[in-house]
Amino acid sequence: FLEYRPVGKIGEGTFSDVLKMLNLRDGKYYACKHMKQHFESIEQVNNLREIQALRRLNPHPNILMLHEVIFDKKAGSLSLICELMDMNIYELIRGRRKPLPEKKIISYMYQLCKSLDHIHRNGIFHRDVKPENILIKQSTLKLGDFGSCRSIYAKQPYTEYISTRWYRAPECLLTDGYYSYKMDMWSAGCVFYEITSLQPLFPGSNELDQISKIHDIVGTPAKKTLNKFKQSRIISFDFPFKKGTGIPPLVPNLSPKGFSLLCAMIKYDPDERIAAHQALQHPYFQELWQVISILKIKIKKWQADKPALAMHKKVRLLGNPAGQEPLHLWQIPKERQRQ
Known about the structure:
The protein is α+β, with helices and mostly antiparallel strands.
């Protein structure tokens, strides 16, 4: 830890403090996540889900980069050194009056779906997707804080702490731990609404109020959906039928395609909810695909031209264009020239 000097505090969570650190070796700034928990051994550190997940998921352009893990056995303290980003989505929209341009929202949502597609393909789901855990640096978005993540293949029910209430999917609220990776898509849908309207979609004051706020907008679920949930719940529940008002019209800068994607992300039934890989194919991102495909063509062309360019340079050098000195063969002793 001697190689780092603390510069200031970035934030504080339930399980950790985040500090801005200067690396005295390379002169760069990093984010240091200092865990509040006491660790006994390196085995306990290596078994930490967050470390396992980041090692498996890095490197990816939309996942926060883990640079190193510092474990002080004597003190039992653990710190994760990660890349330093500019701000999180919450800080970006907090106190903002003017909505973000839709082009920026499209880019951010595409990158968020890219990060979720990557983690889900790698058998991990995040469980705490919210504006505070989505980090940005200029035009790049990265998903961070994997402290609550789980394996998609782990045996249900999941028991311990999960996701912040406002971004919690119905299956998390209504079952005793019977939920899976689709919960991340619900949370991402709530974030999508929030960065577009600058207002939270379901700001429930407690779990019951949370369900009530969801039903006010989305409506009560179909019988078959409720029956699925009931199989995984100790307490029985029934809701009086409610149609739901639909998504509030606070999103004037959201195009019909964007509205269609948002509705697909906040489907009540997780089996009907859009997956990250499907979301990336949604027409909302059509303009981005065109930009990406043009870039891919340019990169391919550049890669194809590179060997030809290198050969051209060699030819020019051997061809000895005017003004260049000839190859100094005369400097090499005659007996060595043949070797």
